[in-house]
Automatic annotation (TrEMBL), chain A:
<keyword id="KW-0186">Copper</keyword>
<dbReference type="InterPro" id="IPR033138">
    <property type="entry name" value="Cu_oxidase_CS"/>
</dbReference>
<dbReference type="InterPro" id="IPR008972">
    <property type="entry name" value="Cupredoxin"/>
</dbReference>
<dbReference type="InterPro" id="IPR001117">
    <property type="entry name" value="Cu-oxidase_2nd"/>
</dbReference>
<feature type="domain" description="Plastocyanin-like">
    <location>
        <begin position="227"/>
        <end position="316"/>
    </location>
</feature>
<keyword id="KW-0732">Signal</keyword>
<keyword id="KW-0479">Metal-binding</keyword>
<dbReference type="InterPro" id="IPR034279">
    <property type="entry name" value="CuRO_3_CopA"/>
</dbReference>
<dbReference type="GO" id="GO:0042597">
    <property type="term" value="C:periplasmic space"/>
</dbReference>
Automatic annotation (TrEMBL), chain B:
<dbReference type="InterPro" id="IPR007939">
    <property type="entry name" value="Cu-R_B_prcur"/>
</dbReference>
<keyword id="KW-0732">Signal</keyword>
<dbReference type="GO" id="GO:0006878">
    <property type="term" value="P:intracellular copper ion homeostasis"/>
</dbReference>
<feature type="signal peptide">
    <location>
        <begin position="1"/>
        <end position="26"/>
    </location>
</feature>
<dbReference type="Pfam" id="PF05275">
    <property type="entry name" value="CopB"/>
</dbReference>
<protein>
    <submittedName>
        <fullName>Copper resistance protein CopB</fullName>
    </submittedName>
</protein>
<dbReference type="GO" id="GO:0009279">
    <property type="term" value="C:cell outer membrane"/>
</dbReference>
<dbReference type="GO" id="GO:0005507">
    <property type="term" value="F:copper ion binding"/>
</dbReference>
Amino acid sequence: MKYQTVKSTLLGALAVLALSSASQAAKYDLSVDYVTIDTGEMKTRGIGYNGSSPGPTLRFREGEEAVINVTNNLDEATSIHWHGLILPYQMDGVPGISFPGIEPGETFTYRIPVSQSGTYWFHSHSGFQEPDGAYGSIIIEPQKREPFKFDREYVVVLKDKHPHSGERILRNLKMMPDYYNRKQRTLGDFFEDVSKNGLGATLSERGDWGSMRMMPTDIEDVQGFVGLINGMSPDQNWTGLFKPDERVRLRFINASAMTYFDVRIPGLEMTVVQADGNNVQPVKVDEFRISVAETYDVIVQPKEDKAYPILAESMGRSGFALATLAPRQGMRAEMPELRTEAPLLTMADMGMSHGDMAGMDHGAMTSVDPSGDDKDAMAGMDHSNMAGMDHSNMDMGEKADPFYAAGSGLIPKAANGGKFLSYADLKAQKPLYAERPATREIELRLTGNMERYSWSINGVKYEDAEPIRLKYGERVRFKFVNETMMTHPMHLHGMWSILDTGKGKWNPVKHTISINPGTTVYSETEVDEPGEWAFHCHLSYHMATGMFRKVIVEGGPTVAELENGK
Amino acid sequence: MKTHNQMKKGAVTALVMAFVPVVGQAAEGKIYYGFQAEQFEYRIGDENEKRVVWDADAFVGTDELKLRWQGEGERDLDADINEKLENRLVLQTPISDFFDAKAGVRLDTPTGTDRWYGSVGVMGLAPQWFEIDADLFVSETGDGSARLDVEYEGLITNRLVLTPSFEINAAFSEDREIEVGKGISSAEIGLRLSYDLIDRAVSPYIGVSYERKFGDTADFAKHDGEDYEATYFVTGLRLMF
C-alpha cells in the first residue's frame, strides 16, 4: 500500500509536462481502471486512476492549458469532474449536462485553461464510481508568491472506504434507511436515560422522536467504513516526513462519499491558510471539521523529533482515519484517545425548539429570515443578521458557532478544549470579486424523507425538477434552508460560491458549502461562466436520490455587454 | 375451476402489464429492487407438531411505483400438506410521507381449496416505529376479509433485536369451503429475538409464536378434529438481500 502511494505519486509526477507548443500546454494522461483496494483488513474491487485508488496527484500551473487525456479502461461509461476548477462547461465532466460521458475504450481529451491556484481534487461523476475509489488530488501552483511560507507539503486525502459497492449501499438504504446505522439508541441507553432524567422525561423524549419517526442518531447514514488517508488505513499508517522546525503544509481534501471528519493533530496547532483552494486570512485552530468535498490547507510546525498523529474522527464517531507525521519512516505516534460517544441530534436540529410536534411532516421548521435588512445592502450586513442564525433566542452560555442551530447536537468541540474552526472564522485573504449587491435571491430548501431515503430540493427530486436558470452577468444570492436532520455539503459547479459569513467583501470564496440541520445559510455567486452546470449535495447517496439541480446560465459575455450597453 | 385459473392468470398478467408502461414512463427514476424474509422458520408445537413457515416479500420499482410480491406459507411436516400457501402481487405507490397504498391480487393454493382475491391496502411506518401492513380482500366467491399486521423492532443492542409481532384476521362473511367463519377469525402473536450476523442480510433468531382461531372458524377446526390454538417454539433466519 505504501508502495502504491509512492507509485501513484510518481505516476502523477510523470504524467507531467510534455510542453507541446509555444503556448503553455501541459499534457497529462489518466487511465480509468478497475483496481484492487487493499486496506489491510479487506480487499475490494474498485475503480482508480493509472492503476491505483486514490489516483495520482495532478500538478497544474496557473496560466497553463492543462490537456488531460482520459482513457476509459472500464466496461462501463465514466467521466472526470475537476472539483472546484473554473473551466469551460464542456470540460466539467458531468454526463448528461456537460458532455455525454466517456464510453468504454474511448479517450476523451479535457482542455482546461488553468486560471486559479490551490488545492483541489477530481473524481468520477458517473454512477457510484467515486465512492468505489475513482478520486485523486490536484495541486495548482500559483504564478505569484503565496502569502505564507512552508518548507514542504503533503496532500492528505480523506476517504470513507466501505466494503460494499456504492450501488449496493444505495439499494440497502432504499430497503432499510437505517441499514448501516449501528449507533442507534438501545434498551441500555433507555435505562441510562431513565436513571439520569427519570422515566417520564425519557418516555416523553422517546415519544417526540417516535412521533416524527426520526432518529437522533441519524448522523452518518453509511457506517462500517474504514477511514483512509492517501489510500491507507490506520494500520497501514501513511507517513509524511518532516525535519523538526520545518513548516509543513498539509493539503486536506475530503474525498469521502458520505462522511464528515473532525481533524486534529494532537500536539500541534494548525494554521488554516486556504479553504476550497482560496487563500484565507490565517486562523490558528486545534481542530476543524471538513465536510464532504471541501479542502482545507493548514500549516503546522512540528518542533520535536517525534511522531505526531493526524487523526480524523468521523462526525458521527463511527469511524476514523489515522496517519503520522514523523521525522523518520517507520515511526508511529501514540494513538490519541478516540471520542467514541456518538453525538445525538436535538430538536434544534429538527428546526424546532420544542419537541411536541407530533404529526409534523418533514419540513415544517421555524426559519427566521434575517429580516428588515434591505437585500440589496446585504453585503454590508452586520453581525446581528449573520448568516445561519435562525434562532434569535441564543441561550447558549458559550459563544456558539452561528453555523449550527442553537442547541444543536452537532456543535463540535475541540478534543483539547481549544479552538475549533467555524465558517465564521473564514475571511478571504484577497477578495476575488468586487463587492456589489445581489441582483436576486433564490431559495433552495434542502428537503428529504429519511424513511424513503429520498432527497430533494424544494421538495422536488432532480428527475422531476426544472433547471435553475441564471443570467450571465448577474449576482445571485442563494438561500439554503436545511429542513432535514442531516448536513448537506452543497456544491455548485463552474462558479464560485461566496459564503456569507457577515464579513462583506472578506466573505470566503468556496466551491462547497455545508449546511447544518435546522439552519439557513446564504451564499452569493457571480454568474460569470456560460453553459450548463450541476448543483448538488455532495453526499453520494443524497445526490443519487435527487438532491441535485441543473443550472443553466443564459447568455454570455457578448450578450451581457450588449444588454449593459457597454 | 378452469375459468377461475384463467381469471387468475389474467389478473396477474394484467397487473404486470399495467406495471410495465408506468415504470417505462418513470424511466428517469431509478429502479430499485430487494428481497426480504421477515420469517423463515422451523416450528415445533406444544404437541410436537412440526412446521416450516415463511413470510417474505420482494419488490422492484421506483420511488413512485413498485411491484411487490408478498408470500406467506405454512407447511405441516407431519401431514406433509401445505396448511397455508399465499402469494400476492400488488402495485404500490406513496400516499403520505410514511405510507404507501397498494392494490393487487392474492392467490391461495394450500392443500385443499384454492381461492383468489382482489386486495387493497396500506403499508408503512406508524408513529412510534410500528410497522403496519393492512389489507382488505374480496375473494372470488364474493367474501370479504381483512388482515392487520403490526411489528416493532426493539433494540436490545445494535445487533440483538427483540421483535414482537401481531396479526389479526377478520371475515365479513362465512366461507365454509375454506373453513372461515364470520367475524374475527384468527390471530397470531409472536416474539422473536434475532441477531444480525452478516450486516442485516442474515439474522438468525429464536422465538415463540401463539396462534388461535376464534368464533365459527374455531368451531370449524374443532369439528374437523383440528386444534384451534397452538403455541410454537420457533427458530429461523431473517433475510434481506
